[in-house]
Design brief:
By secondary structure, this protein is an alpha/beta fold. Helix content is about 40%, strand content about 20%. It is built from 19 helices and 20 strands. α14 links the parallel β8 and β9. The radius of gyration is 23 Å and the shape is globular.
């Protein structure tokens, strides 16, 4: 048996039992609520002696007899919060090496993430969170088994991970701060380490243009069979590989490429571009795509069925989840601490919720900021009501929306409209963002979409804009009303920019890297004007 065959055999042997468990939808429909209730009680007991645990009476709450009593008491004791409510305590933990604040003992790792709304954040990464993320990463392979993917064939070559920098910064107190990729790289162990690319030396590179160049130079001669990363960076790497090799398609460079594990952004708008790179045709694609919902605060969900884009909520990896209706978000973009929250078994399909996590890293009722909709919900604590696991889709960010004129657009509307316009026109695009156009001399109220495009013409842009507009109308009655007769809002303005413009703008703002995402829309013009100004200065 060759070593690559041994990797596939080992993964299948390791994950076979888990794969069978994940296939049992009835079990998850019946027991999800109980698993989550048990998780909350365990987290409260574990942190009862911490500063936040003593202040909020975690020990007494955990000792309550009924799970419903535990949940009600926890919600009464701990208001919903966000980065601003924990940043001072996190600073004491990270900068002062203070133990027993949000989590028992000294937390030695912090993931640095640069958000579009709150600047740099430092998320605690405890030993328990490392184990939680590791278990979630193994579920990727269990889910692929259930989807009929032959792991032996996939691991017969290399698996390429497009993570952020693995560079670790350690202070005088031994506290480590890094990109989350750097913290979880140690989780890549045998058998995955045997097929892992690009290796630790390239993974340490923090300069992304240099990193892409190094990865392209290395992998052009490797048998890449699986890629894991964001679609935007995968397409950038593929383009560079084709430039170096002179090959017309990625299929000719990596003929055995079979699986693309991706997350963080909606894939649909990138599909024509990646399809063209891989097969030479916009309607082509990588054979198996597997969507994840990872966050710095915890691994939330992942796709588990081939014919369903919904992602299964990971309810048994020591994190507890609540969901707050999007309508509860205030005008300042924050959620009131006493807002009504729902567990997965209390949620309703088709309703938009903001995700709130209680994590095994000491985040207590912490707002992640993502907006989701459930396709399926599990049963309640008695096992009644649900028939399967909780499955959800990400539809936006609660601070990212456009409502300058009552049009009430969210990220999902913009992404779906861009996807529809690419299908209608065949235009392959890269990154994009949307913003309101405020009425001024020579301009009417409306919407502007800035897109990276590989080719443009006035006719193509006009057709793209018309398809984009029609899709928004089909999704959103408020937008349709405001667009009526072109009186309230003019047709959208489509502004094409060269491929790579967004990444140049992100680099200029210190936000370039594998886990930084371009904002899809905003209720201001900071992003679109920033890109415009950058292009003016570099032209």
């Amino acid at each position: 048996m060759g070593w690559t065959s041994a990797v596939g055999w080992a993964l299948r042997a390791k994950m076979g039992r888990r794969a069978r468990l994940l296939r049992n939808d009835d079990r998850w429909g019946t027991y999800t609520a109980r698993i989550q209730a048990s998780t909350l009680r365990t987290l409260l007991r574990h942190a009862a002696g911490t500063e936040v645990g003593r202040e909020s009476g975690f020990g007494d709450i955990a000792d309550l007899e009924q799970p419903v009593e535990v949940l009600d008491a926890y919600r009464a004791a701990v208001p919903i919060g966000d980065w601003y409510t924990v940043k001072d305590r996190v600073a004491r933990m990270r900068e002062g090496a203070e133990p027993d604040v949000l989590w028992p003992g000294l937390v030695k790792r912090f993931a640095q993430t640069s958000g579009t709304t709150a600047g740099d954040k430092f998320i605690p990464v405890t030993d328990e969170m490392m184990r939680s993320n590791y278990r979630a990463s193994l579920d990727i392979f269990a889910s692929l088994i259930n989807r009929g993917v032959p792991l032996g064939r996939v691991t017969g070559g290399r698996c390429l991970f497009l993570g952020g920098s693995s560079d670790l910064r350690t202070d005088a107190n031994g506290i480590i701060t890094a990109d989350l990729s750097g913290l979880v790289t140690p989780l890549i162990r045998w058998p995955i380490s045997a097929v892992y690319s690009p290796g630790p030396e390239i993974a340490l590179i923090s300069d992304w243009p240099k990193k892409i160049e190094a990865m392209a130079t290395l992998t052009k001669d490797q048998d890449i069979r699986m890629i894991s990363g964001m679609p935007s960076w995968a397409s950038v790497l593929m383009e560079r590989v084709l430039e170096i090799t002179g090959k017309p398609t990625i299929r000719e460079v990596w003929p055995n490429l079979e699986v693309f594990v991706h997350g963080g952004v909606r894939y649909g708008p990138f599909k024509p571009r990646i399809g063209s790179l891989v097969t030479g045709a916009p309607d082509g694609d990588i054979p198996v795509r597997h969507e994840l919902y990872p966050a710095s605060e915890g691994f939330i969900a992942m796709q588990d069925r081939s014919d369903d884009p919904g992602m299964r909520l990971l309810v048994d990896i020591d994190n507890f989840y609540e969901f707050v209706p999007l309508e509860s978000v205030g005008e300042d973009g924050r959620i009131p601490g006493d807002a009504r929250a729902y567990t997965a078994s209390e949620a309703q399909p088709g309703v938009r919720y903001v995700v709130v996590i209680t994590s095994c890293a000491g985040l207590w009722r912490y707002t992640i900021g993502d907006v989701v909709e459930f396709d399926d919900v599990p049963g309640d604590l008695t096992g009644n009501g649900g028939t399967g696991p909780a499955r959800l889709r990400i539809v936006g960010r609660h601070r990212h929306f456009i409502n300058a004129f009552g049009e009430n657009l969210i990220v999902e509307h913009i992404e779906r409209a861009v996807e529809a316009a690419t299908r209608a026109t065949g235009l392959a695009i890269g990154e994009f963002t949307a913003a309101p156009v405020y009425p001024e001399t020579g301009r009417s109220a409306g919407l502007e979409l800035v897109i990276e495009a590989d080719r443009t013409s006035s006719d193509l842009v006009a057709r793209f804009g018309a398809a984009f507009d029609e899709s928004l109308k089909s999704q959103n009655v408020d937008y349709t009303t405001k667009r009526g007769e072109d009186l309230g809002m003019a047709p959208p303005t489509i502004t094409p920019v060269p491929l790579g413009s967004f990444h140049a703008w992100m680099a200029a703002n210190g936000k370039l890297g594998g886990q930084h995402k371009c904002p899809r829309c905003a209720n201001h013009r900071e992003y679109v004007e920033g890109i415009s100004q950058l292009l003016e200065t570099t032209s």
